[in-house]
Amino acid sequence: MARIVLLGFGDNDAAEHFIASLWAAQEADDNQTEVLQQETVAIGAIAAACATVEALVARPTTYCECKIVGKGRGSSRGKFSAQTEDWIRTQRFGWIVHKRCNKPNRWVVRRFVHQLLAGVGIKNLLPELDAQLYPPTADDVAEERAEARTQEERDEIRSETDPDQVENVIPSL
Ligand SMILES: [Zn+2]
């Protein structure tokens, strides 16, 4: 289990500078101690001067691994029918979890912030800022395509496109 801290900045530039410094510090390698130092100071200074903590959210890190099949199919060896399974909201964190194992759906865990924001229709500006700060190169695009061919990505694409998985199994946040 992890936490998500939502920071508020009255000044848009300060918010973007904060993120740029954080990313630069985290990307700095062992030969860039000066960059690391400068950016670390900037992160602390901007946060102390401009940031307000707006929210603290519990982020699930483990997900339901039960075999749940679509409503049209009945329960069989080790598999549960979506018809008989309940998804409930946890009292403390407000997560929707599978009642049997007490864990959220895999897709929800993997794309937690996306799901969270999509639930209220708010757009995440981080990808836009990321593309601005680090414009994707042709190599990046090729790499992303190659990565999509891994087993995990294929599973993800499959669960995303399987109507049973999407409509019957994934609870909306
Ligand atoms: Zn489960």
What's the short story on this structure?
With 173 residues, the chain is of the alpha+beta class.
Provide keyphrases for this structure.
single chain, 173 residues, alpha+beta, two-stranded antiparallel ribbon, two-stranded parallel ribbon, 8 helices, 6 strands, 17% strand, extended, binds zinc ion
What can you see in these coordinates?
The chain is extended and about 60 Å long. Mean pLDDT is 86; it is low at 160-169. The protein folds into 2 domains: 1-59, no CATH class; 62-173, no CATH class. It starts with a strand and ends with a helix. 49% of the residues lie in helices and 17% in strands. It contains 8 helices and 6 strands. It has 173 residues and is α+β, with helices and mostly antiparallel strands. The structure holds zinc ion. The site of zinc ion (ZN) has 6 residues, from loops. Zinc ion binds at residues 64, 66, 98, 100-101, 103.
Order of helices and strands: EHHEEEEEHHHHHH
The secondary-structure class comes to alpha+beta
Number of helices: 8
Total strand segments: 6
User: Mind describing the biggest β-sheet?
Assistant: 2 strands, antiparallel
Q: Which radius of gyration do the C-alpha atoms yield?
A: 20 Å
Helix content: 40-55%
* Binned strand content: 15-25%
- Mean of all residue-level pLDDT scores: 86
Uncertain stretches of 5 or more adjacent residues: 160-169
Overall body shape: extended
- Terminal CA distance reads 17 Å
Widest sheet: strand ordering: 1-2
